[in-house]
Structure to design on (180 residues):
């Protein structure tokens, strides 16, 4: 655990403003530059972080759990991602606090204008926005919440899905199956 601070400033260093008392584990700016997603590395499992949403002007810094009510405590390495085209943030989470059951986790979109979230899919794993922002790719099953039980090393197969967000409800298409 390293101590430090998170600051925001203009490129020339002017108007510097301290946002938080932690060194960010990662930072991602929204395409419009109005929001920053960042995380504080939790001294636990590799990739484990507490995720924050920060307004560009520093007027608001909140945990995503506080904003959405979804817990992401055991989501190692699955970081929020901004849409490449809209003021939206794709997040993974669970309605069950500190769940170790991967079936409790789902993907949601947080509307950055209203801070309201909506369910996108029950598919869970590594995820990525499509370049045009009209869908997402999900490697369903490529996610292991930590377990207190010994887990034998075996090959797990996953499936790659495209989730078309232009449909209501979003339409899921299987692209490839049986991926080791």
């Amino acid at each position: 655990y390293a101590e430090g601070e998170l600051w925001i400033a203009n490129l020339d260093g002017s108007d510097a403003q301290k946002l938080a008392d932690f060194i960010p584990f990662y930072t991602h700016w929204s395409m419009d530059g109005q929001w920053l997603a960042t995380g504080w590395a939790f001294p636990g499992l590799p990739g484990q972080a507490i995720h924050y949403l920060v307004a560009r002007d520093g007027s608001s810094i909140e945990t995503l759990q506080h904003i959405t009510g979804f817990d992401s405590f055991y989501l190692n390495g699955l970081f929020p991602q901004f849409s490449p085209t809209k003021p939206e943030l794709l997040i993974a989470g669970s309605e069950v606090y500190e769940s170790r059951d991967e079936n409790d986790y789902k993907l949601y979109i947080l509307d950055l204008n209203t801070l309201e979230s909506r369910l996108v899919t029950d598919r869970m794993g590594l995820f990525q926005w499509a370049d045009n922002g009209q869908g997402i790719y999900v490697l369903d099953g490529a996610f292991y919440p930590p377990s207190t039980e010994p887990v034998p090393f075996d090959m797990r197969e996953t499936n790659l899905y495209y989730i078309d967000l232009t449909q209501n409800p979003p339409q899921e298409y299987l692209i490839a199956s049986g991926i080791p």
In short: The longest helix spans residues 64-68. The two ends are 34 Å apart (CA to CA). The mean pLDDT is 85.
